[in-house]
Amino acid sequence: MASSDPQPRFGQSVKGLLSDKVGSCSGDVMALTRQVLKGSRSQELLGQAARNMVIQEDAILHSEDSLRKMSIITTHLQYQEAIQKVEHSKNLQDQLRHLLK
Predict the structure, then answer these.
(1) Residue span of the structural domain in which 57 resides
(2) 48 located within any domain
């Protein structure tokens, strides 16, 4: 009887250790699953950030192009204004000559 007594205890302690290990492994699997999901979410966020960057880059390039065109138009208008001033000055000179005659 005494020899049969340690066997059930040993079996119960093994079952207890096994149960602890299974619980530990289950916790590890759940932690791993959470980490994988976090990684997946991070990938989604990085992908969205990359798409947003491309959109912003296109907007910046379009803005640069518009600014370049506006600069050309401004220069053209300044030339036209200078030409009009010269023409107006010539008209004034002609009127002055006519009055001084």
Answers:
(1) 14-100
(2) yes
What total number of domains does the chain contain?
1
Does residue 74 lie within any of the structural domains? yes
Length of the chain: 101
At 1 the pLDDT is: 41
The secondary structure of residue 1, as a DSSP letter, is: -
pLDDT in tens, 53-90: 999 999 999 999 999 999 999 999 999 999 999 999 98
Q: What is the DSSP string of 22-75?
A: HHHHHHHHHHHHHHHHHHHHHHHHHHHHHHHHHHHHHHHHHHHHHHHHHHHHHH
**pTM of the shown model:** 0.50
Q: Is residue 71 part of a domain?
A: yes
